[in-house]
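As a warm-up, study this chain.
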Amino acid sequence: KVYGRKPLNSTVVANTAPLPGANYDDITSGSDDLMRRAALEAVLAALHQDPLHWRAKQVVKEEVLKPQYEAARMQEVLSKVLRTGGLATQIKAFAFERLRQLRRQQQQMVRLLGPLGLPHPPVPVPTSGLHETLGVIQWARLAGDGASLALKRLRELSDEQQQPFLRPRSPPSACDGKDAPANTRGTSSACSDGEVTTRHIIDLPRMFRLLTSELAAHHRDAPVAGRIGAGPPSLLYRGLWCGVLGLHLRAESIESFKARYRDLSPEHAHLGIADSRRSSMEDADQRRDQGQAMLAQPYAPDLQTFARFGVPPSLRQEIWTRCLSAEPKSSLSSLQDFARGVCEWEWITDDVLRLDVAEHCANDVNYFPFDEIVESLVLSLSRDSGVAMDCEAGPPQSPIFAGHGRDGYDDDDDDYEAKADIASEDCKAQQFVPPCGIVPFRTFSVYACPFAFLTDRLEVAYPLFRAFYCRYLSRLHTISSQPSTLLNLCALFEGLLSTTAPHVVYHLSELGPDAAPLRFAFPWIVCGFVSYLRADQVLWLWDRVVGFDSVQLIAVLAAAVFAFR
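Now compare it with the structure written out below.
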């Protein structure tokens, strides 16, 4: 009822590990009642282990012992006590977040089943074991984002710098100060070992070619069994389709989008949008008072509905934190460990991230005052080994291993061992390059830029940035068949534009592939419009992303720009 989605079918349930705390012995079908009962048992089991349960139990116990209550009215008294003390809202919020976690665990298990539906060992399992159901997309993941190409580029960069993938950081020298260049500040190798040059591993034009011409060529030349369904090539290869995406994916109709995003209608008052019929100051004050009242007893679904119409800037950080369950205190110790790792060890991708910050943050009129906190955010994310598995659409990339032995990818080079100088047991535990398992591409650092407007404290900004990235931003560069990932967003953009402005699409297609609309909109989608819109407009857009809990609005906006212009 919370998500408004149908439960998994009986085959998936039979091959999926039981939810924690749930009894699946009597589940033989995927009926709504059985799934609801299993979810209820799982939520109650988790609640009994949470301090909230014992706090609510103590408050109720102290109240019902008072002599003015009758035993016959006890159920009414219990409900009143929970509502008055705000405990009912806290329990609802706990149940909502736990249901989201359970659904995400189910989705992970479904991805682990593989294309044949065979059961796999229970989690935890390595992220490389996650299967992609479409062979052509699996080829794109291995060939383009994190396997062959990224590993080859990392090796070339390691040879050029004459540095291993991982090395101890040298003691700080005199140039590690404010006078150091932005792209070498805090990089000891640039001071003690001479000039060290770096470059980007993967850029957006390369990613665009992978998803268009290269993917189309591989799909066209692949055996019939590797295509989506048997039979002759689709309209995509008969010249009757004007899109350039290398795979013809199904997109929803524009009518379904109008119904889903009806709250975006101009009939409603929205913050961040000029409207001559209303006073912007009065709307802002009214929205601020309403938001403060909701934060007194925060409940994520209500706050998400509130965010659909724009969040006042003074309340944005707290409302986003509540919607994403990104409490700063819960990850403070982990952040300290990441900071210690940045100070003591240098990964080969660190200089790549610093270069990216220098090019896209320090040179941006909106974000240049915040280059230091942006650099800290992306470096901390690169050290977080739990990011890849916490991404809701699955790991964005196929990980690169820094240890000895083959990692499962085809390579003709005999020297396949990654050059990692691991000098301690703690560093041996870091298996991926970098530890988060995500090789940064060009413009990766722009994801952290808007969060510098929310707070200047790293311990507050990082948990929110991490949660936002795992739930939303990671989808913008994940090559997968999962909903609302990069391929689906590109297909959505082309489908909406061909529906609303077919003459524009046809005209641009006649000019050749270099004039394709997706070629211009691709960086907008991947970057979430950061550095393409003003900072305040990006934050207004991301308010709606949080409110509707979907990144589809980014592709919708990209199509709207073409249709409007």
